[in-house]
Amino acid sequence: MDALITAAARFLAAGDALGALRRVALRDDPPALALRGIAMAQLGEHARARELLREAAKAFGPREAVSRARCVVAEAEVALAMRDFGEPPRALLQAAEVLAAHDDRVNALQARLIAARRLVLLGRLDEAARALPAIDLSTYPPLPAALAGLAEAELALRSLRIRDARLALMQASAAAHRAGVPALIAETEDLRALIDRPAARRIDAGAEQSLRLDEVEVLLASPTLVIDACRRAIRGEGLAVDLARRPVLFLLARVLAEAWPGDVDRQTLILRVFRTRHPDETHRARLRVELGRLRALIEPVAAIDATTRGYALRVDEGRAVTMLAPPIDGESAALQALLADGAAWSTSALALAMGASQRTVQRALAELEADGRVRALGQARARRWLAPPMTGGLTGIATILLLPAWPPAG
What we know:
Largest sheet: 6 strands, mixed
Oligomer: single chain
Low-confidence stretches: none
Radius of gyration: 25 Å
Structural class: alpha+beta
Distance between the termini: 52 Å
């Protein structure tokens, strides 16, 4: 490898993309193409970066398997930044195996971290936990150690393991400062600040209280029966019921929880849950059926009793019922939470992360665009969606609890 290629690689490792381009911008040999692609990615020109990295991978000869694998890893990282989840990670994992077999453990680690972060973004937290490599960060250079710490922190935050997240961020911050890459230092600081922002609202008898992520973790581990409107679930000591795909049952639980320890009349339940002002016997029969289903799900820790005018939620003595509400209200809160990371998402990537159809996501995006809460860039297949910085009463909040999880939380 010649001196210019070596110098460009050193500039890229230090986060100086322009310094690297000054040395290889006019060259079209495979190593220079790869370095130009990485530099363009650091400058935010992701589409051009992918083109250059693909050209480099094709240009490397059959005896240069390690170089081709490194290009595959770099392209996968660009795809992650573009929120492009269309291609399966099979090629990335094969590249990781090639790199590990040739003792390039740093790039092999990078490949596995990209695969794990992809799963975290898609909300597949159990799969991400299995994919995240268990390593001793002290044996790696500062840059990959910082990236590994960030990946661990992201997974811990999404899984509501706040103590683990703080520890991982502490290690990532120390490694980022040793690496001396400003963008990486800023990312660790932003994630650390997120932990101390309000993430949800606790509602008891109409009174609201803002909760941070660590306070939410404590609440969900307590004996309190929590109707979790952030992730549409019911949680309590020994109980975790996901209702993300059963909106009628969740609405029933929410209305009953809002009235606890009182009851709710049948007319109000039908109005809130079935959204009709003129109920008939079919609505009353359906209400009884849905209440029976909900009663069976929460039977270990709670009951639903019939009263003279309606129904009431009952729990054992010493146990309370509370509502956990999101910091952003509305049907599109999860979509806004995904877009809050500042990246440009495609409709297909949003649909994949939401676990919804593209048509459903397109309708929601059209409504958000009409309200000025998102904007579109590009046309047709190249269209990407961005959310402007949160303003007004939404500044300084954490949207972690609104991010979809697959399988859904609970």
